[in-house]
Design brief:
By secondary structure, the chain is of the alpha/beta class. 41% of the residues lie in helices and 13% in strands. It has a single domain, classed as Aldolase class I (TIM Barrel, Alpha-Beta Barrel). An 8-stranded parallel sheet has the order 4-11-10-9-8-7-6-5. It is globular and about 70 Å long. The two termini are 35 Å apart. The model has no long low-confidence stretch (mean pLDDT 97). The chain binds flavin mononucleotide and ligand LXCWX6NK. Ligand LXCWX6NK binds next to helix 8. It comes from Deinococcus piscis.
Amino acid sequence: MEHPTDCLNLRELELLGRQRLADSAHPSVVDYYLGGAGDERTLRGNREAWAEWRLRPRMLVDITEVDTSASVLGLTLSSPVGIAPSAMHGLAHPEGECATAAAAAEAGSLMTLSTLSTRTLEDVAAAAQGRWWFQLYLYRDREVSRALVQRAEAAGARALVLTVDAPLVGRREALLRRPLQLPPDLPLPNVGPRTPGTESLTHMQYFDSLLDTALTWRDLEWLQGITRLPLVLKGILTAEDAALAREHGAHIWVSNHGGRQLDGAVTAPEVLGEVVAAAGDREVYVDGGVTRGGDVLRALALGARAVFLGRAALWGLAAGGQAGVAHTLKLLHEELALDMALCGKTALDQLGPDLLHRR
Ligand SMILES: Cc1cc2nc3c(=O)[nH]c(=O)nc-3n(C[C@H](O)[C@H](O)[C@H](O)COP(=O)(O)O)c2cc1C
Ligand SMILES: CCCCCCC(=O)C(=O)O
């Protein structure tokens, strides 16, 4: 396979992306993208969990027109698929986050920009054409975080996504064995230069040292006081926390961080039902192990409003920059539309639990 558009599915794009990355980057970068925490039980679980639900298709329905469009915090998406935040897209492609954002914009999708971006917020905002959210890792230095949030709002981000499942970095053993090596010229504009005395820390240890381990529900008020952007909490896995998110006026992103944080954590399909039930009028999104249009279908049938792609977008980016991410989104869109039609569904509001049978 030479070109991303030769790939028939996301698995083939992953293989091409991994190959390109192995040719262009330090081997620790592939470890970083691929890996999970501990024994990688949750990582494997993410890959298998969607298939636990079999589909109950309905027949003799007119499916001549299938509409996959979705509305997320008032923004219309061509398909209920967005891009999850992931660090350092500049490792996958020289255009980094700008290429990802441009592909998302072109596809009528939505990109979530990581705090650990290799391009400035303003550059990514220009490429994203209003189709982006900003993900925040809350730093110990609140003034640095305040400035980032306010810059994101001024640059046109539509929501603020606070990641709540990484007060400390998970035990990623591949990186303990072979620490992540970054090119010396890789920009990290939202991290800034290393502070004196931190030279001996690995990159992951250094990122970890910047984060506020004392973050609690009480701090949401501070965050909501410095921005008018809607708040989304990323990393919610229980009905209890979904109820708290709702009480705090936040939307909910169900995620176990791609199996990279707490190994043994539940997978999203296992908990979506309880979270959606507790979420009330709050929007619920989900990520983890999504590689097929049928996974998107299942997530929506379980009550999610949209799904987000982590590694799949990175593999597309590594495989072919903007064209690779665009092809990733196109394949999922086509698969979703086909699976909807074969299930006798012509719009997303027809997807519900009656579509699912648990194995
Ligand atoms: C290489 C990599 C970097 C990531 N960086 C971030 C990040 O900066 N912020 C964040 O909230 N989540 C981050 N994530 C987690 C993703 O947002 C997402 O939750 C996860 O990748 C979803 O699982 P999937 O890769 O199976 O789609 C990262 C994931 C990967 C694979
Ligand atoms: C918890 C600080 C380092 C996280 C780096 C980015 C990230 O979320 C990842 O999964 O990797």
